[in-house]
């Protein structure tokens, strides 16, 4: 069974982690290829301006399959070298692909997001949580470490000290605490989650698509580049943006006090 189901609503694509009976556990061995292909389709499709990611049922994702860990099968089978290579081909392919998504990604966290599930939620550019959501990275509780890059991502999302507390204690936090810590933008009533996520996605999708993708690139690159490097990238991308029809439309729309009608040209 595949991991993701898709629904397209205009310029917005909804991805649902769809293993409800297993609390959307991941990864199965084919998940790296599936997520990479899904992200490549989005990156190649200029009609898509925003992706919303959520989970089926009562969980966002419970993370790794504990029975597979116990039985030493699938991802966890064989030698240390074999397990390392599977992490690179499966787990890392998932997180690299999501990190490399060129359009904004909104995580609509509908329930527990644990381990890899928590770190996948953290890859969202904008993160909105149901009041039923919870978050945790209980790797140490299982005698393992974050094998998915979470030790790089989590401190950037919530700061070193809070990331250390979450990782070293192996405890989970509720949605309100996640909002206080900056792990999510805000918390909404469970029944309002998708309406809120889609309302934000509509605002994102209303922006000029070429400039939108460039803006996301600059934000991501800004995590690790120097100020001078960022200025150089900004100048180059700005020059391209100034030559688009959407730039002319945006200026005209503001001057005429009307919404812009952006075509991606």
Automatic annotation (TrEMBL):
SUPFAM superfamilies: ClpP/crotonase. Keywords: Lyase. One of its GO terms (molecular function) is enoyl-CoA hydratase activity. Its EC number is 4.2.1.17. One of its GO terms (biological process) is fatty acid beta-oxidation. Gene3D superfamilies: 2-enoyl-CoA Hydratase, Chain A, domain 1 (3.90.226.10), Lyase 2-enoyl-coa Hydratase, Chain A, domain 2 (1.10.12.10). It comes from the Bacteria. It is an enzyme of class 4 (lyase). The keyword Lyase applies. Belongs to the enoyl-CoA hydratase/isomerase family. PANTHER family: ENOYL-COA HYDRATASE, MITOCHONDRIAL (PTHR11941:SF54), ENOYL-COA HYDRATASE-RELATED (PTHR11941). This is Enoyl-CoA hydratase. It comes from Brevundimonas vesicularis (Pseudomonas vesicularis). The lineage of its organism: Bacteria, Pseudomonadati, Pseudomonadota, Alphaproteobacteria, Caulobacterales.
